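Changelog-adjacent note: as of this version, every example in the card shows the full chain rather than a window. The one below runs 209 residues end to end.
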Amino acid sequence: MTSPSLLTNRLEPLAEDTVGPYYPYSFVDDDRSDLTRLHHGLSVGPQGKPIILRGRLLDCEGQPVDDALLEFWQANAAGILRTPDAPDHPLLDPYFDGYGRLVTTLEPFVFKTIKPGAIAAGNGMGARAPHITLTIFSDGITRLVTQIFFDDEPEANARDPLLESLPAELRDRLVARLTSNPSDGPAIYEIAIVMRGEGETPFFDDLSS
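Full-length structure tokens:
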């Protein structure tokens, strides 16, 4: 057997090489970008106000980042998270699981969901304002975790322990702006997520709710 030290068919990595993760498109279920419909074959849907979260994922130069994997995790309209700790909670919505996923392109991402309710105090934490937890996976990073709040919830935002933990000048970077609220359609919120550099979005070690 040839000694591994004698093998000569190894190529030196290029300077611009990065370590994954790499995600094949087959990994992404298109339905995970729209939580307002549990399944296209069903006419029923989740309770609550439908919303569209439209966002831009930007690099340090303000350019859009494509091929990043975004995962969304949120409570339902009643403020209840679907977790193993609450499998039989009476306010769980059978038509809403709170988990979404999509891959970014050069265009703004669009995530359709139900506006989450406020989460009651518990597990040593104060009450949480309505929010969506966002996890970002991209080439060259393991993951980034942040949360997105809503600008039409000023009182709840003012009491949220996560927002309170940030300097005042950073809090607005986590707040999505309401840009449209028609009576016959979903409200539209917009936000920019800056991964690094000037105007960088606050990120956290880990967030589960």
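Structural remarks: Residues 13 and 190 are 40 Å apart (CA to CA).
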